[in-house]
Design brief:
By secondary structure, the chain is α+β, with helices and mostly antiparallel strands. It has two domains: 131 residues, 2-Layer Sandwich (Beta Polymerase, domain 2); 123 residues, Nucleotidyltransferases  domain 2 (Four Helix Bundle (Hemerythrin (Met), subunit A), Up-down Bundle), CATH 1.20.120. α5 runs antiparallel to α8, α6 packs parallel to α8 and α8 runs antiparallel to α9. The longest helix is centred in the C-terminal third of the chain and has 26 residues. The termini are far apart. 27% of the residues are buried.
Length: 277
């Protein structure tokens, strides 16, 4: 068992992270219920930087082994490593995730699932153990054949209700409810980012790839940030967010050969004009 040090505020080093990863993989290899082990995320290709976490996937042959293995390894890892906190995060039937937060601030995400549920969700993995001889082909084929997002459905869904966010943001300003207005404004900004991410095949969950978006887009998006809780500043940000949304909507119209954006844009800009001056 690893000796538990006193609680420390020292951040883990890359060498410490590598040592912990090696220790975890060696321990998991001993479990005969596991037919596969994968390092996923940035660690699969060499960690992105000194702040990257450890992401692992443990694969069983039988679905019946997933939950017991998940529970047993949660306890084992808490004994092996200086764990500050851990939490269970069920993802789907027979897919379970442990999230461990160590005393040295390292996060370890360890997913358990069976071979039949194995799929590549990102194009970064490194197969460490494969007793089945099938894991690499499953990962490759599932990535190559992953379902593509329906751009038109995504666009229509976000466009059809954008008026609600714009209207209620403006109303909240008039009612002197700045925090409500900011919430609605953030909904608009999030939809802009989601649409841009879908169009450029960038991941926007937790804004993972937003910083990689084009500089001119991010410059425009910066104008949607609220400078203060004053009504004039919120309204300026709301107008900027509305413009950003419809700039993106017009791009979708071009791609999908539609003619939808102008109708909503004209109406919403007329509505916001009621609050000028």
């Amino acid at each position: 068992m690893m000796e538990r040090p006193d609680q420390t505020d020292t951040h883990y080093s890359p060498a410490t992270r590598e040592a912990i990863l090696d220790r975890l993989l060696n321990a998991l290899r001993s479990d005969k219920r596991l037919v596969g082990l994968l390092v996923v995320g940035s660690g699969a290709e060499g960690f992105e930087d000194d702040h990257s976490d450890i992401d692992l996937c443990a694969v069983t042959t039988s679905a019946d082994d997933v939950r017991p293995a998940f529970q047993e390894w949660g306890e084992k890892i808490r004994q092996m490593l200086p764990t500050f906190h851990s939490l269970e995060s069920p993802r789907a039937p027979n897919i379970y995730l442990w999230v461990f937060f160590l005393e040295n601030f390292l996060e370890i995400d360890l997913c358990f699932l069976c071979l039949n549920d194995l799929r590549a969700t990102r194009n970064r993995w490194n197969t460490i153990l494969d007793r089945s001889g099938r894991i690499e082909s499953i990962m490759q084929s599932s990535w190559e054949n992953r379902p593509k997002p329906d751009l038109e459905e995504a666009y229509r869904f976000r466009l059809s209700s954008i008026w609600h966010c714009i209207k209620h943001a403006a109303i909240a300003v008039q009612r002197q409810q700045p925090w409500r207005a900011i919430y609605e404004l953030e909904q608009i900004r999030d939809r802009v980012i989601e649409l841009r991410g879908l169009r450029e095949e960038l991941e926007t969950k937790r804004f993972r790839h937003v910083d990689q978006m084009p500089e001119d887009f991010l410059t425009d998006l910066e104008q949607t940030l609220v400078l203060s809780l004053k009504g004039v500043d919120i309204m300026n940000a709301l107008r900027a967010a509305t413009t950003c949304f419809f700039n993106e909507a017009r791009q979708y119209d071009k791609i999908l050969n539609l003619d939808l954006a102008w109708r909503f844009e004209t109406k919403m800009k007329a509505y916001l004009a009621l609050f000028e001056g």
